[in-house]
Amino acid sequence: MAENYFIPDLTLDETDKKILSILHEEGRISYTDLGKRIGLSRVAVQARINNLMEEGIIEKFTAVINPVKVGIHVSVFFNVEVEPKYLETVADQLEREQAVTSLYHMTGPSKLHMHGIFSNEQEMENFLTGKLYPLQGVVSVDCQMLIKRYKSRMGMKL
Fold this sequence. Notes:
- It comes from Bacillus gobiensis.
- With about 160 residues, this protein is of the alpha+beta class.
- It has five helices and four strands; from the N terminus they run αααβαββαβ.
- β2 and β3 form a beta hairpin.
């Protein structure tokens, strides 16, 4: 299961914050171009980014894909209530599902909040009836289908 999130006792200097800010907006920028923007050599930028990765501050580099352009037309948010003794087991099973894009343990009586994407409504229904509802410990499921995306946060800004 995913690790717990907390704010580490780590101090980033202004240069690291600038690097992270630029990478957040332009993840494909070259070390040379990044260095020019912040006044460091390519080697110094590369060393700082490697350190940020080793410290776990940068988890990975990835492409943000528009789901509609690749045939994903149904985006759904789920609130899943689970019997407490099954919470970890259900979470472990759901995090392995390809359709599940994010999964969080929320406050409340053993609530999991998750986001899933599906090609169409039938695929979502198959997920619900074939994978989610049958999980031992699932008490209730509340779904909200996304109508329109105005903003989607990828990563975080400092």
